[in-house]
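Section 5: illustrative case.
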């Protein structure tokens, strides 16, 4: 007698590529942009963080918290400081072909709320956030 096979299942949410759920057309800032201009951009576009790029390559990430800590708290002039002076340089990233499961594990292990998505040439192609994951029913917190 032949053994019955289990149910055939299609791809699950965890098998999705991060490219399918990430935010594309991310608002960025160049390394030489003044912090004052950058903050206006963040407020006008209603975003909490901006990837910092140079010629399309990811160089860092800036959050409102970075601006408060490194500019406001230290009493520095936001018109004289550049994005490169405030950005976090060692940014955790993922590749655009990573699975959602890979990204969820990374976010949980590193306690992150957002991860820039890059291609194999280090070009920024998107940003995946805990909100992007929540939309597909995945809670990272």
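Designed sequence:
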């Amino acid at each position: 007698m032949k053994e019955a096979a289990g149910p055939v299942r299609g791809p699950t949410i965890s098998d999705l590529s991060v490219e399918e759920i990430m935010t594309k057309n991310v608002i960025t800032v160049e390394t030489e942009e003044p912090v004052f201009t950058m903050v206006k951009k963040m407020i006008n576009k209603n975003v909490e963080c901006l990837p910092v790029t140079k010629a399309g390559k990811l160089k860092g990430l800036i959050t409102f918290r970075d601006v408060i800590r490194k500019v406001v708290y230290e009493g520095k002039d936001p018109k004289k400081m550049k994005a490169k002076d405030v950005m976090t340089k060692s940014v955790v990233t993922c590749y655009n072909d990573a699975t959602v499961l890979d990204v969820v594990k990374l976010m949980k292990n590193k306690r992150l709320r957002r991860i820039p998505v890059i291609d194999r040439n280090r070009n920024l192609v998107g940003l995946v956030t805990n909100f992007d994951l929540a939309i597909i029913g995945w809670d990272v917190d």
